[in-house]
């Protein structure tokens, strides 16, 4: 098997609004856009991350971004239409500061910053 693309799929009620948020606020590059399917490219590559602690039950996928300044990112993201759901919380055991947000379409995502850069 050869993987040719990795993506995380989110649902958008308003495709133009959803694309605008990830393009203009997050800074992703639009690869293609249509009313039913749009793709935005992460400039430095895409990753699949596995989070420990599962109990074998089905879990939802999630989207996350590492940032250099979590407080500044929250300001930029909320000004661009995101909603802060929780945080930022210092997670000493994971070495990060973590916050949860929702995009203008209601999709949850997280941002994190390594503690040593704060």
Helix content: 10-25%
CATH homologous superfamily heading: 2,3-Dihydroxybiphenyl 1,2-Dioxygenase, domain 1
Category from helices, strands and their pairing: alpha+beta
What is the count of distinct domains?
1
Alpha-carbon distance between the two ends: 41 Å
Mean pLDDT value: 88
How many strand elements? 6
Strands in their spatial order, largest beta sheet: 3-6-5-4
Characterise the protein shown here.
- This protein is of the alpha+beta class and 118 residues long.
- It has a single domain, classed as Roll (2,3-Dihydroxybiphenyl 1,2-Dioxygenase, domain 1), CATH 3.10.180.
- It has two helices and six strands, in the order αβββαβββ.
- The strands form two sheets. Strands 3-6-5-4 form a four-stranded mixed sheet, with helices on one face. A two-stranded antiparallel ribbon has the order 1-2.
- A hairpin with a 4-residue loop joins strand 1 and strand 2.
- The termini are far apart.
């Amino acid at each position: 098997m050869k993987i040719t693309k990795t993506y995380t799929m989110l649902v958008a009620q308003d495709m133009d609004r959803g694309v605008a948020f990830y393009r203009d606020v997050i800074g992703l590059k639009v690869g293609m856009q249509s009313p039913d399917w749009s793709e935005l490219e992460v400039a430095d590559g895409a990753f699949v991350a596995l989070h420990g602690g599962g109990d074998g039950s089905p879990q939802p996928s999630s989207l996350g971004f590492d940032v250099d300044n979590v407080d500044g990112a929250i300001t930029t993201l909320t000004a661009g239409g995101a909603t802060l759901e929780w945080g930022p919380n210092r997670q000493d055991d994971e070495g990060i500061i973590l916050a949860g947000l929702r995009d203008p379409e209601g999709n949850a995502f997280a941002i994190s910053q390594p503690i040593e850069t704060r």
